[in-house]
Design brief:
Elements: E1 4-6, E2 13-16, H1 17-21, E3 39-51, E4 55-72, E5 75-82, E6 90-98, E7 101-107, E8 136-138, E9 141-143, E10 147-151, E11 158-162, E12 167-170, E13 185-189, E14 192-200, E15 207-211, E16 242-248, E17 252-256, E18 262-266, E19 273-278, E20 282-289, H2 293-304, E21 317-319, H3 327-339, E22 346-349, H4 372-381, E23 385-391, E24 393-394, H5 401-409, E25 435-436, H6 442-458, E26 462-466, H7 482-500, E27 507-508, E28 521-522, H8 530-544, E29 551-552, E30 554-555, H9 564-574, E31 580-582, H10 598-613, H11 615-628, E32 633-634, H12 636-639, E33 653-655, E34 659-661, E35 673-678, E36 681-685, E37 691-694, E38 697-702, E39 710-713, E40 717-721, E41 734-739
Parallel strand pairs: 21-22, 21-31, 22-23, 23-26, 26-27, 28-29, 30-31
Antiparallel strand pairs: 1-2, 2-4, 3-4, 3-13, 4-5, 4-6, 6-7, 7-20, 8-9, 9-10, 10-11, 11-12, 13-14, 14-19, 15-16, 16-17, 17-20, 18-19, 24-25, 32-33, 33-34, 34-39, 35-38, 36-37, 36-39, 40-41
Helix pairs in contact: 6-7, 9-10
């Protein structure tokens, strides 16, 4: 083996990782530094501590290390060895934002950088300002009325506990030479910099959040792909919505205030460590103390914003297909909705309302969709709003006036030479010839907002902000570096369209921290399988624990054709989601219920009418969500955090505060029994009124196609209304009230 030297401390062979891998191996991401010839700088020895208006500024000396590759026979390890430091001081800011939320910023620079200053404040992840917090700093301890933050003067390790009480947060410091754990470190490799952090992860600690996750609601031991992308299904680790925020059962939440390329290793590289890193020269995160997960969610939304309340009509049924191709088709669907006695409020026009399918010029086809104002007004008289599709790309075609306008005025993302960015040849595929609207450019935002306002004036009620998750980091943008913009782009995109809309709603696919301010999000392009149905529910619960309260998905699945049974089960879940939409790929792969069996139509109608009758409860719970940050679809842990049995349950949920929903996620051919966990308390079967006193136990319920297990928590008051056609004139009269 070449370039090997004996290691005096371990009976292993080692080699200089720089010689083995070469300087090119920085990976272009924070995680790439783990196997690169980088120099790693750790705080070592407090130089000074300065009390500031918001907290304390600490300066530390530096201990520098490099990685070496080591082998114990066939096991390869990254070890550390001393190195010459490239910097002599690192700084740690600790700021108090409330008496239970503190900010930690780690950098080689004394001042805190703001890479988002080129964007409007409303289009950033962090929108709050720090409050004036009374605190003391003495004996390396910061105290507020609620928490104490302890700082190790030698290493910079921070621990925090409730005042006079239990510890809820602790950085991890290790002297072990194996580099599976990267504690607080600033790493340099040539002109690149990354920052690492490691926190103690207790044996029984569970981590939730980090966005829309289709694989599991629990992040421990799971791969976390933190790069927004077209998920193309709901059964993988890909996601449209990465959110750098998590909740710990230890009693805190953490919000990483960075959209730079990020890596999370939660009980993966080392079972005792929760590690995260950013490909940036500054690490900036908030620690949110909370005795309950509800407190933590409220604290997070206090930093990044609370959701606006979508209009009442949006909580009605949306009917859609990819795509209705003319007003004749749309009006036929409108007639069939009413003829089949299906309560419905929205008809959505997807990719085909332009002159050419997908040629998004924001203009109605004169042949297939003439006189849009007249047709939209007529549909509104019948109780239907009209929603319109668009996306953040522009096909570069001669007959697309938006392309020529954007090109002339410089509204498009550019390449390094100043020309319009084009995807490289190896990325060629669907839509990659399209050019990208640069929403970091204020003139481009104003130009595009004017287009959306024009559609609103035509009568459109909502805009579907499709895509947004696939923009290239290597492109050049007007107001922000591309490495920060990839995961952040959808926030600015949705902010632009939301702000131009007449009512507080968009129908968004991608997002990040702060995206809850611009509802509603849906789960993207799911497959037509039971596995994808289960993944969709996990995505809903995970995104809900990441601060986004309103979530929908395509009833029936998007990719493929559902059979009757899958359609029924998806409808049951969809009609007990925050928002409900039927949608699928292709003009001839219908998702309207009357295109399925008579049984499917009957069951769909039953649950659709049930949803409409429960609209007073649903809308009241939606208002609570906008005030608390809680989701409509809640993982059981949010409501029952002291019950350890619920920590891993991701196939049932609370719909608001009072209804437990246990959707059937398998075909009857696999099981005719649904196992359901009922947390401790008194519950009532919604349909049979059977009273169940539970000490926290599993029950079994026989299921048929029509069965959707719903249980009502004792003390819940349900109000019913008379709306049974649409919500265009409100919910109508309250027909009855029932308290269970």
């Amino acid at each position: 083996m070449n370039n090997m030297a004996s290691n005096k401390e371990f009976p292993q062979f080692t080699e200089n990782i720089a010689e083995r891998l070469g300087s090119a191996c920085n990976g272009g991401t924070a995680d790439g530094f783990r196997v690169s010839p980088a120099v790693h700088h750790r705080p070592s020895g407090l130089k000074s501590a300065e009390i500031t208006e918001r907290g304390v500024l600490l300066s530390y000396g530096v201990s520098a290390r490099k990685s070496v590759l080591s082998y114990t026979h066939e096991t390869a390890l990254n070890l550390y060895k001393p190195a010459d430091s490239l910097i002599d001081t690192v700084y740690i800011h600790i700021e108090l934002w409330t008496d239970s939320i503190f900010r930690v910023v780690f950098s080689e620079n004394k001042d805190i950088a703001n890479p988002y200053s080129g964007l409007p404040e409303e289009a950033r992840m962090l929108i709050a300002n720090p409050g004036k917090v009374a605190f003391t700093f003495e004996n390396s301890t910061i105290k507020t009325d609620k928490i104490e933050i302890h700082i190790d003067s030698e290493s910079g390790k921070i621990t925090a506990n409730y005042k006079g009480g239990r510890e809820f947060f602790s950085k991890l410091k290790t002297s072990f030479k194996a580099a599976d754990i990267y504690d607080l470190t600033l790493s340099k490799n040539g002109g690149d910099t990354a920052c690492f952090e490691a926190l103690e992860l207790e044996t029984d600690e569970v981590i939730y959040g980090l966005g829309e996750r289709f694989d599991s609601i629990v992040r421990n031991g799971r791969q976390t792909d933190f790069h927004n992308k077209d998920a193309v299904g709901t059964t993988s680790t890909r996601t449209y919505v990465n959110i750098p925020f998590y909740i710990s059962t230890k009693g805190y939440g953490l919000f990483l205030n960075s959209s730079a390329p990020t890596n999370w290793q939660i009980a993966t590289a080392d079972l005792s460590a929760l590690q995260f890193a950013v490909y940036d020269n500054q690490l900036d995160y908030f620690v949110i103390a909370g005795e309950t997960p509800k407190e933590i969610l409220r604290g997070y939304c206090g930093l990044t914003g609370f959701a606006k309340l979508p209009p009442l009509w949006s909580f009605g049924l949306w009917m859609s297909r990819n795509s209705y191709t003319s007003w004749d088709v749309v009006e036929k669907i409108a007639r069939e909705v009413r003829e089949n006695d299906i309560p419905c409020d929205v008809l959505h026009l997807d990719t085909a309302w332009f002159t050419e399918d997908w040629n998004c010029d924001l203009k109605f086809s004169k042949e297939r969709f003439p006189e849009p104002e007249k047709h939209i007004a007529q549909l509104k008289e019948q109780g239907f709003r009209v929603s319109l599709w668009q996306y953040n790309f522009i096909p570069p075609r001669e007959n697309n006036s938006n392309y020529h306008e954007a090109l002339e005025h410089g509204y498009l993302a550019k390449d390094k030479t100043g020309g319009v960015y084009r995807y490289p040849d190896e990325h060629k595929g669907s839509w990659t010839d399209d050019v990208i609207i640069d929403f970091s450019n204020p003139d481009a935002r104003e130009w595009y907002a004017a287009k959306i306002k024009g559609l609103m004036e035509t009568g459109a009620a909502a805009i579907k902000t499709d895509f947004g998750e696939g923009i290239p980091e290597e492109a050049v943008y007007s107001g922000i570096d591309g490495k920060y913009f990839h995961n952040l782009y959808s926030l600015v995109y949705n902010y632009t369209v939301f702000g131009a809309s007449e009512e507080p709603i968009v129908w968004a696919r991608s997002g990040t921290a702060g995206s809850q301010r611009f509802p509603v999000h849906w789960g993207g392009d799911s497959q037509c399988t039971f596995e994808a149905l289960a993944g969709t529910l996990r995505g809903a619960l995970s995104i809900g624990m990441s601060g986004i309260p309103f979530f929908s998905h395509d009833i029936g699945g998007f990719i493929g054709v559902p059979d009757d049974e899958l359609y029924i089960r998806w409808a049951q879940l969809g009609l007990f989601s925050s928002h409900s939409r039927c949608h699928g790929v292709g003009d001839h792969t219908h998702r309207e219920p009357w295109y399925f069996s008579g049984e499917a139509l009957e069951i769909f109608r039953f649950y659709d009418k049930l949803r409409y009758s429960l609209m007073p409860y649903i809308y009241e719970q939606a208002k609570i969500c906008t005030q608390t940050g809680l989701p409509m679809m809640r993982a059981l842990y949010l409501e029952f955090p002291l019950d350890r049995n619920v920590r891993y349950i991701d196939d049932e949920y609370m719909f608001g505060e009072g209804l437990l929903i246990a959707p059937v996620l398998k075909p009857l051919s696999k099981s005719r029994v649904r196992e359901i966990y009922l947390p401790a308390g008194v519950w009532y079967d919604y349909f049979t009124r059977e009273k169940i006193i539970s000490d926290g136990r599993w029950i079994e319920k026989a299921v048929e196609h029509k069965t959707l297990p719903i249980y009502v928590k004792e003390g819940t008051t349900l109000k019913y209304c008379s709306a049974d056609r649409s919500l265009s004139e409100g919910m109508g009269e309250i027909t009855r009230t029932a308290t269970m």
